[in-house]
Amino acid sequence: MKVLVIGGGAREHALCRSLSLDSAVSALYCAPGNAGIAEVAELRPVDALDGAAVAALATELEADLVVVGPEAPLVAGVADAVRAAGIPVFGPSAEAAQLEGSKAFAKDVMAAAGVPTARSYVCTTPEEVDEALDAFGAPYVVKDDGLAAGKGVVVTEDLAVARAHALGCDRVVIEEYLDGPEVSLFAITDGVTVVPLQPAQDFKRALDGDEGPNTGGMGAYSPLPWADPKLVDEVMELVLQPTVDELRRRGTPFSGLLYAGLAITSRGTRVIEFNARFGDPETQVVLARLRTPLAGVLLGAAKGTLEAVPPLVWREDAAVTVVIASHNYPETPRTGDPIEGLAEVAAEDGPDAYVLHAGTRHEGDAVVSAGGRVLSVTATGSDLAQAREKAYKAVARIRLDGSQHRTDIAAKAAEGR
Ligand code: AMP
Ligand code: GLY
């Protein structure tokens, strides 16, 4: 099977790594990719947002499967363009990707499907904003309706800050604050059959102790020893299957990866958000634990034959990933700095610890930083404590001037807290 992966972050590196280990994959391409992905896939330049260009590339490569990684191409209809060219594609249509592309659409689908989520108002005028903020009280949760690369959500005790964010958006969702730990649960679906993956937890704040600004994600781990063993079954029944059924009922079936961001509140599990693609950095730890070869599962979702795919098999191992970010991330990050120590990790720590590249590129023989999140250092171990130890040992070998990482990824969970 020839597979083309669209994107170029750590999620795509994790996907390409798994696909490269799958004996069913005879050729693996990634467009545009990054310096790390180049070690496991052949890179091709492409504008990932240009559906016609992606479809042309897939046709030229005679791809049997195209996997679209990030949300922006999905919302832009790249999966539709590839499907129209007659090539199976893992990733939802533009219409179904509105589940991530519009918070208001997601709320509407959840209401229709009876999926538990925060109570909310969709506001378009300053009067509606004030009424909604007043109705819920602090802490205020204010979400830009559209795609905002993780920067559209403000959670604050400060009414003036909440109001200012709301008035800066054309359309805004204001909702009830949800208390309790967050869980990311992914499911692969062909629009009918839904196959849940293992839950993971992501660390969204920049600094240790969940301080500092929100980021795209600074680390993740899986499994969640503290979670109810029935969590996956419960979320399947209450959230994932009803959502997939509702989108099919509307004539916009969702195929690809349905990502449920959940809050485990004292009043039960609630959906915080949906995403229409694999989450980053959770994918790095979830795929590290998946034993089943990936290509056949993704192809089953793409072709509508997921029901025939055998149940997924998981490793007993735990996995941890620690993100190394650029100087000044999540503000305007500094890029172009050389990265050293990658060869040492490969020589000393493999195969249980490895570096996935998020934002990197080649500059001559050197690998340099090319984004806010630069590397996602991933390790597996017999439990979270061991996986953590291996990940941080590898992190310590990496030298990137001005870089930052959290030192407490999975620390509480590893200690049984
Ligand atoms: P989202 O982009 O919807 O995932 O929001 C980003 C982050 O904001 C989430 O991961 C939560 O930490 C936080 N958040 C979003 N909605 C709520 C809510 N209703 N209550 C509490 N925190 C929230
Ligand atoms: N880990 C958060 C996200 O992928 O949106």
Q: Helix/strand/pairing class, anyone?
A: alpha+beta
Strand content: 25-35%
What is the CATH architecture annotation of the largest domain? Answer: 2-Layer Sandwich
Low-confidence stretches: none
The general outline is: globular
In the CATH scheme, what's the topology name of the largest domain? Answer: D-amino Acid Aminotransferase, Chain A, domain 1
CATH superfamily of the largest domain: ATP-grasp fold, B domain
Give the C-alpha Rg: 20 Å
Sheet having the most strands: 5 strands, parallel
Major sheet: order of its strands? 3-2-1-4-5
Distance linking N and C termini? 44 Å
List keywords for this structure.
single chain; 417 residues; alpha+beta; Rossmann fold; D-amino Acid Aminotransferase, Chain A, domain 1; five-stranded parallel sheet; 27% strand; globular; binds adenosine monophosphate; binds glycine
Topology of helices and strands:
Blueprint: E1 2-7, H1 10-20, E2 27-32, E3 42-43, H2 51-60, E4 65-68, H3 71-75, H4 78-84, E5 89-90, H5 98-101, H6 103-113, E6 120-123, H7 126-136, E7 140-144, E8 153-156, H8 159-167, E9 172-175, E10 182-189, E11 194-196, E12 201-202, E13 205-207, E14 211-214, E15 219-222, H9 231-249, E16 256-265, E17 268-275, H10 282-289, H11 294-303, E18 318-325, E19 339-340, H12 342-348, E20 353-357, E21 360-363, E22 366-369, E23 373-381, H13 384-397, E24 399-400, H14 411-414
Helix pairs in contact: 1-10, 2-4, 6-9, 7-8
The protein binds adenosine monophosphate (AMP) and glycine (GLY).
